[in-house]
């Protein structure tokens, strides 16, 4: 299958990040960049990053662009939580209830924010189409198989 300009540029970005980290010297990095831009098929791109840790994605997740995008997404998420908290607190004040019921939905919103922050690297890699959800990665186990032939839900 033919490769797209976007795929070639993603591999080139991974190679540039690996050169910045010192995983590739300038000569080898330039050779691989030339091969990445000259690639016509997807099969030609895989070997260029195969010997880098996690296919080079760990280097890509540490680029300034990735960190800026993560900070921007977390800031946006925090403002949504603050807005919802303000609205719910206002409704609580207007209702005159003694129990602070907005704590229940806000707890779930804060947990979601913490998960968002925790999986920031995975989210960036997944957006490129290379990442694997942490629960699908090695060491997490798969669905349980029953011995009676029942496949489960």
TrEMBL record:
Residues passing through the membrane, by range: 77-94
User: DUF1707 domain: from which residue to which, for each copy?
Assistant: 1-53
Q: What is one Pfam family matched by this protein?
A: DUF1707
Q: Which InterPro entries match?
A: DUF1707_SHOCT-like (IPR012551)
Keyword Magnesium in annotation? no
Q: Which UniProt keywords apply?
A: Membrane, Transmembrane, Transmembrane helix
State the PANTHER family in the record.
DUF1707 DOMAIN-CONTAINING PROTEIN, MEMBRANE PROTEIN-RELATED
In its UniProt entry, what is this protein called? DUF1707 domain-containing protein
Species name: Paractinoplanes bogorensis
List the lineage, top down.
Bacteria, Bacillati, Actinomycetota, Actinomycetes, Micromonosporales
């Amino acid at each position: 299958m033919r490769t797209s300009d976007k795929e070639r540029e993603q591999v080139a970005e991974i190679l540039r990040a690996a050169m910045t980290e010192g995983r590739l010297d300038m000569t080898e990095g330039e050779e691989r960049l030339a091969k990445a831009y000259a690639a016509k098929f997807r099969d030609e791109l895989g070997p260029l990053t195969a010997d880098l840790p996690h296919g080079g994605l760990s280097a890509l997740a540490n680029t300034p662009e990735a960190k800026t995008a993560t900070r921007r997404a977390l800031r946006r998420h925090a403002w949504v939580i603050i807005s919802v908290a303000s609205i719910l607190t206002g409704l609580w004040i207007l209702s005159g209830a003694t129990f602070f019921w907005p704590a229940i939905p806000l707890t779930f919103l804060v947990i979601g924010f913490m998960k968002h922050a925790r999986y920031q690297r995975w989210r960036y890699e997944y957006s490129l189409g290379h990442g694997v959800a942490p629960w699908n990665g090695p060491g997490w186990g798969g669905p349980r198989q029953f011995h009676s032939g029942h496949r489960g839900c």
